[in-house]
Amino acid sequence: MDKLYTTVGKIEEISSKMYHNKQRMPSLVDICELIYKNNEYQVVKNYLLTDVFWSRFSDQEFIELFKQSTVRLHNILKDKNQQIIKEDTMLREDSDIFIYKNFNYVVDTYHSHNYLETIYAFRGNAIIRIENEMINLKEGQFCILLPLTKHQVSSLEEENFILNISIKQSTFDYVFFSLLSNDDALSLFFRNMFKEDITNKYLIFSTDNNQDIKGTIKNLVMENQRIDIYYNHSCISWMKILFSILLRNFGNTLVYSKMNHKVNISFILQYIQYNYRNLSLQSLAETFHYNSSYMSVLIKQYTGISYSDLIKKFRMQDAKMYLLNTEMTIQAIAETLGYQSVDHFSRTFKKWYKISPSIYRKEKHQK
What we know:
Blueprint: E1 5-7, H1 8-22, H2 28-37, H3 59-66, E2 70-72, H4 73-78, E3 84-85, H5 87-90, E4 97-102, E5 112-113, E6 116-123, E7 126-130, E8 133-137, E9 141-145, E10 151-154, E11 161-167, H6 169-174, H7 185-191, E12 202-206, H8 211-224, H9 231-250, E13 255-256, H10 265-275, H11 281-287, H12 292-303, H13 307-325, H14 330-336, H15 342-353, H16 357-366
Parallel strand pairs: 3-5
Antiparallel strand pairs: 1-2, 4-11, 6-9, 6-11, 7-8, 7-10, 9-12, 12-13
Helix pairs in contact: 8-9, 11-12, 13-16, 14-15
């Protein structure tokens, strides 16, 4: 099939008429087949205004501009029977990131992707079915889905504007993973999301319609419309900025999947990080009204490491900070970190970093 296109606005014009006239939600394939049958498709892709940052536009101006963007009709019709939507269906050959709209009044099949997907409620809300959960994604919220997570998205209001951001898994692994290399509880959790046996399938950030987030999204969409040699690198850069803002400013809003709703694992991990110096597994479990065995399993499940290794990790990262940024003696640092003896601290530090704390401090200060 030759390359054929339609627009976001055309698809939603048809879906709205079919829904309100016949009281049924058509599928995207139904609409695309109708456009093809009626010869209402385009053979040329629309090229939108890209000489100014779209963050300058109001939300409504941005939405109206996006509705003019083209949809690859040929790809949808070619792969209409796929249960797993693959990267090459959604992304251009030279693209690592692709942004598209979740169409209002269009029934979404229960499907999965072999890429990372972020769903953002720019305006309005969406209902997302993720395996056995039903989630009401509210305006300003992000839902980040792991690859191969089965889901279905429904948007049933005219004013809803729900964006989907697709990222190649390989791109996330080598580009965005650097954002998650910090030794804090949330980054530790995020890194372990990609283990095969992890039970979490999604994360939700709440941004309360933050304007910096919206501006970043608008510029990311604008770059995704370009065709020059720089657009893909620019898309990656804007996406890194977006993830940075989410982790820096909205990490405390995280909600995780597949959890007992009485368990706030983010708070538990942060509690450990700030109180580990005088904390035992037993006292931690009692604080959150669980037995120690369950707490141990919970920590292992959501971080990938044991409670004792997690404590050691927090101690070692703080040890480096004290050695680099204070004049505290090695003994004072050991006591601050909760070690009973300076020898125990020094042995642990050397085993962890392959260098003694005193030599580490000396070498770093000489640079």
